[in-house]
């Protein structure tokens, strides 16, 4: 028997379509409604998980790192491994007090030097061409030739003197030859005097002639590399003008200025932070004469291939004989909060990190001393602190 269509049901369906709604109740065979059997969407399930994640402040379940209402962070173990989080155990103890000094890299004066023109003249390339920056040179090597510049009047005077010497030399040579033929009839002292006079005139002529065309060899003052070139081939230079600078990159120094005179006798060691790590320094000594209201302190760079250049400004962190109480942590542990405070992240639970405001001062180029805000036994994040600070 065929069932008659339900007019009321058809009118309701037509009304839903007219309103443009996307969700309509579905009916299966007969009068059974199966719309409640649909599975929740992924968005609904995710919202439910997030709602369960934050309860009374303790994390129960979550799939990603997030910042909680009290400012702490919930970071699952899987996320910690991805971020490379590492921690160190805080130990409060005596640490060496440090001071920061402004310094500048210098070349060792005993392992380098300058090539200067001793007189005015024209520069010519050496046997191996014009030296280039970074070129290795040896001590005593000819780097450049300097041809002296002589004025026309002076050149004319030298040529006149050379002509006069030539005439005297010809007369002396002829006299010596004649006396040599009359040996026995002429006293021996006259023969020897004529020979000496001829030899002296030859040397005098060579000296005057050399002043006209002879070039001066400019030698390397030390073994090392050419660090600066301020001349080109054929350039006319003045006396005492610097043409080249030679340094030994394995022997560099750092000069720092100290405004506390007591630091001269209290510095034990020092270091310089660089982009690739730290540069260890050895304290050599300090001057006793003020320069710009400060005492110059000299340090020697221990590394032979230091990634610094001569003249580069650096920050010197010097350790003194005084001590302070604090916790030594890597420099990467310290971060800045949104308010500008210095903070570190403390690992208080397996998946929870709490920011702690601290007082920090440099300990060396790679670590800092936390003098307030931490206690012995707390775990401080040593790697990945900057990534934790970005979690929102």
Provide structural commentary.
The structure is a single chain. By secondary structure, the chain is of the alpha+beta class. The protein folds into four domains: 7-51, no CATH class; 66-97 and 324-388, conserved putative lor/sdh protein from methanococcus maripaludis s2 fold (Beta Barrel), CATH 2.40.420; 102-109 and 248-313; 110-246, RNA polymerase II/Efflux pump adaptor protein, barrel-sandwich hybrid domain (OB fold (Dihydrolipoamide Acetyltransferase, E2P)), CATH 2.40.50. The chain is 23% helix and 36% strand. The protein has six helices and 23 strands. It has helices spanning 7-19, 42-53, 77-83, 152-181, 188-213, 385-388, and strands at 66-67, 73-74, 86-89, 93-107, 113-116, 121-125, 136-137, 142-148, 216-219, 224-229, 236-237, 242-247, 252-258, 267-274, 277-286, 295-301, 313-330, 335-336, 342-349, 352-357, 359-362, 367-372, 379-383. The chain has a six-stranded antiparallel beta barrel. The chain has a five-stranded antiparallel beta sheet with strand order 1-2-20-19-18. It has a four-stranded antiparallel beta sheet with strand order 5-12-10-7, with no helix packed on it. Helix 4 (152-181) runs antiparallel to helix 5 (188-213).
